[in-house]
Design brief:
Layout (H helix, E strand, L loop, with lengths): L11 H7 L6 E6 L1 H12 L14 E5 L9 E8 L2 E3 L6 E6 H4 L13 E5 L2 H11 L12 E3 L11
Parallel strand pairs: 2-7
Antiparallel strand pairs: 1-5, 1-6, 2-3, 3-4
């Protein structure tokens, strides 16, 4: 379910509504080409078909006007406001078991070797929220640049 959570504490009910199905978290290695395929899948119908990924550690440009397979460009590592080129080695990712098994059309992930890192995504979020002394303070950092809106929205490029 897609929704915006208002400022303030995140309730168990909101967590249950956002993460209707619980999922195991898994770790796998991904090549640059596989990462590009994953981001292209995410951007296919980016206006709300349910497969737009929530990502961290990566920045990219997204232009929905381009033809399929060419909507994502200039993928970089992104940390603390700094971008770096992708390394010439596989990247380690953490995702949920549903996606690693090809769910939501992410068939490019099905053949990856993976290992479990956390039995329950919901429980990990609950524990993280319980351990935080300060409220979550999200900000738009421009990691994902929607090309038609450059100049009107933050863009790290």
């Amino acid at each position: 379910m897609n929704q915006t959570i208002p400022p303030g504490p995140i309730t168990r009910r909101q967590l249950e509504e956002l993460l209707f199905y619980d999922s195991e978290l898994v770790r796998a290695d991904l090549t640059k080409e596989e990462l590009d395929d994953v981001l292209e899948r995410s951007a296919e119908d980016w206006v709300g078909q349910g497969h737009w990924l929530q990502i961290s550690g990566v920045a990219f440009k997204h232009d929905p006007r381009n033809p399929e397979g060419h909507r994502v460009a200039d993928i970089r590592l992104f940390k603390n406001g700094t971008m770096r080129e992708l390394p010439n080695r596989p990247l380690q990712i953490v995702t949920n078991k549903f996606l690693i098994e090809g769910g939501d059309g992410y068939s490019m992930l099905k053949n990856l070797d993976w290992e479990s890192v956390e039995r329950s995504l919901k429980e990990r979020i609950r524990l993280t929220l319980d351990d935080r002394p300060d409220p979550i303070a999200p900000r738009v950092d421009g990691r994902i640049c929607h090309v038609p809106e450059i100049g009107r929205r933050p863009c790290a490029y």
